[in-house]
Amino acid sequence: MSIFGVLMDRGRIILKQPRFNLTLLRLAHQLIENYGNFENTCIIGIQPRGVELSDRIYTLITELIPNHQAKYGKLDITFYRDDFRLRKAIKANETEMDFVVDDLRVILIDDVLYTGRTIQAALTALNHFGRPCNVDLLVLIDRRFNREVPISADYIGYTVDAVEEAHVVVDWDLNPLKNEVRLYKKKLID
Amino acid sequence: MSDQAQLSTRHLLGIKNITSADIDLIFHTADEFKEVLNRPIKRVPTLRDVTIANIFFENSTRTRISFELAEKRLSADVINFSASSSSVSKGETLLDTVNNILSMKVDMVVIRHPAAGVPVYLSKRIKANIINAGDGTHEHPTQALLDAYSLKEKLGNLRGKKILIVGDILHSRVALSNIFCLTKIGARVRVCGPPTLIPKHIASLGIEVSHDIKASLRWCDAANVLRIQLERQEIPYLPSLREYAQYYGINAAMLNEVDHPIIIMHPGPINRGVELSSDAADSNQSIILQQVENGVAIRMAILYLLASKN
Fold it and tell me: Three-state SS for B78?
């Protein structure tokens, strides 16, 4: 595809409203079903885009169970990437973890599960905050045929079967009614 | 702000040839490394496949330890080399020494040398990334960056803030790098010291010059106090250190006379009782130990950003 073609690729909507918000609500309910009031549990969003999802999930859980006990953190994995020096550097984001994860049940949240390498890096990063009791993974989109490491999600919003060159983007518009997921034929920027 | 985090250069030779965007990026990255340094496990695997040589042809305590710690916190492999215990004393040239070290597959070189221009000379002849850890009386970029970063932590945005540099400006690489760094990020800079220790034409760098320490302290928001570098003075520039201390030494009484709190900084090592009295160096206004702490985060940021420029 030419550069013009790539720029003109406006993407195909694969998850739109109201299903998008219903999916988030379903994921929140699934967590409540398994974690109760979230005793000994922490929810950790992976920076930057996983945090958009974890913020929404955490807010939904708080609305459904106001007195839940989940701790909430944000984890940046920039310094743990295995492709450092193979690609252009990426600006580091803020890590906000004011607790250690020793003996905690961890719910790790990212928006798209693709090759699995981000989650691999997140698990390494997590080790630096202690030894969790167990780790579950929640993702909004699972691109199940593009994995490069043996990692799978425990909670999945929507499964996408796309070719490797395709690019899935979750639009986290500030207005939740405009949130949607788009599938592009090619990645627009590296 | 873009997600891309590239410096405009693949070496850190001085502050003069980096941009204010580079400085912002280094500060932003240092913020994140400072968070790493406060974790239970203070190490990240980022540079696990990188080998770094610390080549010091001059004595150093803080800078060498700070670089070494930064490298180890990033999981790099580290080689330490000091001229006093090497073949340099047997007559080997600088380029031969460095090339021999590089033939052992070294990716980055941190170098300190008494001759100005050595990092630039090496950067034109060898492949590795070069980081200047102080070259003669020329530049000491990492010190300037950690000074400005520490000031920013205390004062917020430095644009328009008044920063005083006191002491031996003529022989100080810290002074020159600080002047470049602070003016690039919009601070106002004044140097103060005896006329023999202020270089001619330094005002052409866009800074003010004063010989009145008390008036300068009243003017400034922060004072960076420098050491008198006797080791670099081939002829006497001062009648005596005692006289210097009498006219330019800063003590707590002088700070108390000023109607606003001044931040006191010093790149170390301090000659207590000469440029700074103990009651000033150990006062609440002093951020000397925070400077040392921030030095590790700043150096981690620089190593990280340069390592991705290969």
Answer: strand
φ and ψ of B275, to 5 deg: -80, -20
Q: Around Cβ A127, how many Cβ atoms within 10 Å? A: 13
Q: Could you give the CA distance from residue A91 to residue A69 in angstroms, rounded to a whole number?
A: 32
DSSP B102-147: HTTT--EEEEEESSTTHHHHHHTT-SSEEEEEEETTTB-HHHHHHH
Which of A49, A77, A84 best tests the B interface by mutation, with the highest count of B CBs <10 A?
Answer: A84
**% of residues, chain A, pLDDT over 90:** 71
Average pLDDT over residues A143-157: 95
pLDDT in tens, A69-81: 999 999 999 999 8
Which residue, A79, A126, A128, is CA-closest to B76? A79
Q: Are A179 and A15 in contact (CB under 8 A)?
A: no
A100 contacts in chain B (CB < 8 Å): 40
Q: Of B213, B224, B219, B217, nearest to B291 (Cα)?
A: B224
Residues of A with CB under 8 A from a CB of B: 76, 78-81, 84-85, 88-95, 97, 100, 124-125, 127-130
Q: Which residues pair with B189 in a beta bridge?
A: B163
**CB contact at 8 A, B57 and B132:** no
The Cα A84–Cα A96 span in angstroms is: 22
**Peptide bond before residue A48 is cis, with ω within 30 degrees of 0:** yes
End-to-end CA distance of chain B: 23
| Cα B25 from Cα B23, distance rounded (Å) | 5
Q: What is the pLDDT of residues B10-68, one digit of tens each?
A: 999 999 999 999 999 999 999 999 999 998 889 999 999 899 999 999 988 889 999 99
pLDDT tens digit string along A86-142?
A: 777 778 899 999 999 999 999 999 999 999 999 999 999 999 899 999 999 999 999
Buried b or exposed e, range B244-258, using 16+ CB within 10 angstroms: bbeebbbbbebbeee
For residue A14, which of A185, A187, A189 has the smallest C-alpha distance?
A: A185
Contact A88 B44 (CB under 8 A): no
